[in-house]
Design a protein that fits this description.
The complex is a heterodimer of chains A (296) and B (201). By secondary structure, chain A is an all-alpha fold. Chain A contains eleven helices and no strands. Chain B is globular and about 45 Å long. The chains are: A mainly alpha (296), B alpha+beta (201). Bound molecules: iron/sulfur cluster (2 copies).
Chain lengths: 296, 201
């Protein structure tokens, strides 16, 4: 029997970009929501800046890995590819998010008071809404990049963009729970994050189960991918430690009213969610088994 | 005009002359075979036998590699050839993953066949035509077609298993042989519409 191998053309750099894109967009989105609700203003202020910074970092890593010399610039200067290529679409979506995200966040930070708009004024808020809408697309597009590849059945799967959306948003909440350790927050705000994290973790767990089940039933190549996907790291790292345990921790934190306890439970859950999120992207990317040329 | 090829699997003896001719013609470094012959076993002992599948780029009429390319480096000519412009390719390898026929190869390094420092005169000449960091693929020997010559793999085949020509011309040898023998394409279900037909498969 021949050994099953996932594709080897895309590796850790792509994994990191998928992870950071979702994480940054999720962080921005929930910070913006907190800000709009008037909850934990300091956390929201910092989160709106972390979002575009992290997405920018992920994009730089990706371009270093995927781009050769100055040809990378063609991602932005060859708009005809927007009609068909999800990498080009993703580059434009991420760039838009980064620009609008910074434009919304920066006026609230020292050194940027010279900007002629403020975050909560008409223009600043418009930038915020634009970035928030784009933040919903940034975690989804990597699922489309992989999803349109017909020669890898495990990726050519409609559950993947949904999976990446939930995973991205979930890690965004985790970042805010970690930042909450060092800034002034209140229990009500943290409980809001915990509820969102809890709902997303449950949705993610369900989508993940559906994804694996669909992959398992997508021909022999799909079955091979499912075998690579559901290794011990996946079951214990992604599903149990990265989702089930956080669900329990967040449920306990919701029953508690002590700020210190809610903070710590949120932070522990956040570390697990972040590790699980990274492992999930790694598992999906590396378990992409190509169809053999002769048959499937 | 649409260039295409028919490969008769009954005639192919798996000698790899096409593989070698392609390497020579294109000066591809070790590890990169733009044309290769897949060997596989059919049947079970004692009635098992080896079969051969010569393959390269299928110059698909609906190429997924072209669809995903973010820079416009991959393009399709009027005559159906799917090519890569190395001046535009950023080496992202998206097309490599998207091609269902494993016909694209990232050129990460340009190595010499006999190791560092032992470049042959032929390699010296041919390596000038390669661009590191881009993607390589079969071009149906586009550089020879202009001179009215056949692709190197077609010309060299000692079993005469390959037939090349214009699929849009019903009078061409390739169209006739496909019409007569009813050629099939690989992975027709993916809708890529390959221009390489297999006979007696
Ligand atoms: S065989 Fe692969 S590289 Fe060639 S045209 Fe089809 S998809 Fe593109
Ligand atoms: S590697 Fe080059 S040809 Fe292939 S998709 Fe990327 S830019 Fe296009």
């Amino acid at each position: 029997m021949t050994e099953i191998k996932g594709q080897k053309h895309w590796g850790w750099m792509v994994v990191l970009d998928l992870f950071l894109a979702g994480l940054g967009a999720g962080t921005f989105l929930f910070s913006f929501v907190l800000d709009r609700l008037g909850e934990c203003p300091e956390l929201a202020r910092i989160g709106t800046l972390i979002g575009p910074v992290v997405v920018l970092l992920g994009s730089v890593l990706l371009l270093l890995d995927l781009g050769e010399g100055g040809h990378v610039l063609r991602l932005w200067f060859h708009p005809a590819a927007l009609r068909t290529s999800w990498i080009t679409r993703g580059a434009w979506l991420q760039t838009g998010f980064i620009i609008f995200g910074f434009a919304h966040a920066l006026p609230r930070f020292a050194g940027f008071a010279w900007l002629p708009w403020d975050a909560s004024g008409g223009l600043g808020l418009a930038f915020g809404w634009a970035a928030a809408v784009l933040a919903l697309t940034v975690p989804v597009y990597p699922g489309m990049v992989l999803g349109v590849i017909r020669s890898i059945p495990a990726w050519n799967n409609a559950a993947l963009p949904v999976l990446f959306l939930f995973a991205g948003l979930n890690t965004g909440i985790a970042v805010l729970q970690l930042v909450a350790l060092g800034v002034t927050v209140d229990v009500a705000g943290l409980h809001l994050l915990a509820i969102a994290g809890l709902v997303l973790s449950v949705l993610l767990l369900l989508t993940l189960a559906a994804y694996v089940e669909i992959v398992r039933h997508t021909g022999t190549t799909g079955r091979a991918s499912a075998r690579l996907l559901t290794s011990g790291v996946f079951v214990w790292g992604v599903a149990v430690a990265g989702l089930v345990l956080p669900i329990v921790l967040l449920a306990v934190s919701l029953a508690s009213t002590g700020l210190a306890q809610v903070r710590v439970l949120g932070a522990v859950s956040a570390v697990l969610v972040l590790a699980g999120g990274l492992l999930l992207r790694h598992a999906v990317v590396t378990s992409g088994v190509r169809m053999t040329v002769r048959s499937d | 005009m649409r260039y295409g090829m028919a490969i008769d699997l009954k005639k192919c003896v798996g000698c790899n002359a096409c593989t070698v001719a392609c390497r020579m013609e294109n000066g591809t470094p070790p590890g990169i075979l733009l044309c290769q012959v897949e060997k596989y076993e059919v049947g079970t002992y004692p009635a098992a036998r080896m079969d051969f599948l010569p393959r390269a780029c299928m110059h698909c009429a609906e190429p997924p590699c072209l669809e995903v390319c973010p820079t416009g480096a991959t393009y399709q000519r009027e005559d159906g050839l799917v090519l890569v412009d190395p001046r535009k390719c950023m080496g992202c390898r998206y097309c490599v993953l998207a091609c269902p026929y494993e016909a694209r190869h990232p050129l990460r390094r340009i190595e010499n066949y006999y190791g560092p420092g032992t470049v042959t005169p032929w390699e010296e000449k041919k390596h000038k035509t390669l661009t590191k960091g881009t993607v390589q693929k079969c071009t149906f020997c586009a550089h020879r077609l202009g001179d009215g010559r056949q692709p190197a793999c077609v010309e060299v085949c000692p079993a005469n298993a390959r037939c090349f020509g214009d699929l849009d011309d019903p009078e061409s040898d390739v169209s006739r042989v496909v019409a007569r023998q009813g050629g099939s394409v690989l992975k027709a279900e993916l809708g890529t519409c390959p221009s390489v037909y297999y006979l007696n498969s």
